[in-house]
Amino acid sequence: MSKNLFSSQFKQACYWKESMEWPLKVAPKDLPATADVVVIGSGFTGLSAAHKLAKSGAQVVVLDQQEIGGGASSRNGGIVHPTLGVSAQVLIDRYGVERAKALYPIVIKSMEYLTNLVKAENIDCHFNYGGAFEAAVRPKHIAGYEIKAKLLKEVFNHHSHVIHPNERSDHIGSETYHGGWHDPLGATLHPARLVSGLGEAAQRAEAELHPFTPALGVETDGSTRLVRTPRGDIRADAVVLASNGYTGNMFPDLRKRLIPLNIVALATEPLPSDLADKLFPKPYCYWDSSRLFFYYQRTKDDRIVFGGVNALPVGGTIRKAKNSFRRFRRIFPELNDYQIDYAWDGNVAITFDRIPHLGQSEGLFYALGFNGDGVLLGTYLGSKIAEMVIGKETSSPLAEIKFPSIKGSRWLPKLMPFARMFFGVLDTLGI
Ligand SMILES: Cc1cc2nc3c(=O)[nH]c(=O)nc-3n(C[C@H](O)[C@H](O)[C@H](O)COP(=O)(O)OP(=O)(O)OC[C@H]3O[C@@H](n4cnc5c(N)ncnc54)[C@H](O)[C@@H]3O)c2cc1C
Asked: Is 265 inside any structural domain?
């Protein structure tokens, strides 16, 4: 067993960005004084919105306070699984069967949208439509999967499969798991390549990208909006806010509806391919059923990229990475002989009802709150909010749901670490 968790080449940096030439080129350019639409944020949501808007003929300017895609979009796990963030049962209990039936197609359409977009725009992002697998950390979770698979089939006509303990090794090579749930809808991808490809697609449609240009505020001036930036102001007919876990206090009405959460991801050194085949025999995107779950994928070069919500309430990326890798090695003891090459972090945005929201507020269009599932939903809802701006869509079943905030929401991020610790204890006790 290698006691040292980090390899001699270890870098505190995002593996995805380190593993590619960044094809997206952005030539420095003055900000225009006017635009049809200003998009704030250049992750999947902002770039997808910009692409759709520019294709419809709008003059679009994308602003980001960091480099293009520098938020969560280039630094996530690359897990692509269609979900609104809560289970189908919760959708039905909360909104009733009819409304749940109107909401559920969003997840199916989001998968179709991403698949078609990657193909149509020729985005080389290692998109592998190989299905999804949730690994059961407790035997009792299998009974839950039976109920879930039945419900998905009967109410939403979505076919998925329960994997029993005796079939487990065909799907995942860890004896700590007790089977699982397999959904044919699921994929893995290289997120930084997707961001870069979306940026290029938006540029081909003639959207302008302006990195390192923060929007300092948006003022309403008659029927137009004035977007203030340190490089000058832009007058626009509409503004799209796509800032998710990086939404600042200059948008107070939306900020109070989001809890930013910083999470860590890691990449192992490349594994021998026979070991990678044994541990991850299928091209699935994987996660497990614990409260502080792990998610993971096998990359093209046979590394495992994984991460999850960490139970540690304190400490930076390195400390959290150590804690995560120790826990991950307990699931896959074969990794005791292998080390971590990269660890990095990023922000997700949690909503109080755990589903994403889109609509209009404070004169802004927004698509926010992906609860750690924004690869697919960010890309899809970015295009949907663009359609609302253009007037092609007047609403969406999601826009009809109130975007909740609660009193004291400014303090909640401070309490989150203790909630995480509590969930960690419950997971350890198997409750
Ligand atoms: C470590 C990690 C792992 C994850 N794993 C997965 C996964 O496997 N699968 C999955 O589906 N999701 C995953 N997620 C979540 C997913 O990455 C996000 O939901 C998604 O990227 C959100 O995209 P976005 O475009 O809405 O926001 P982001 O990509 O975060 O972009 C928001 C952008 O807004 C910019 N911004 C904010 N305020 C301003 C301002 N005032 N002016 C200018 N720019 C501004 C920021 O700089 C940022 O670039 C993960 C996230 C993290 C951090």
From this structure: yes
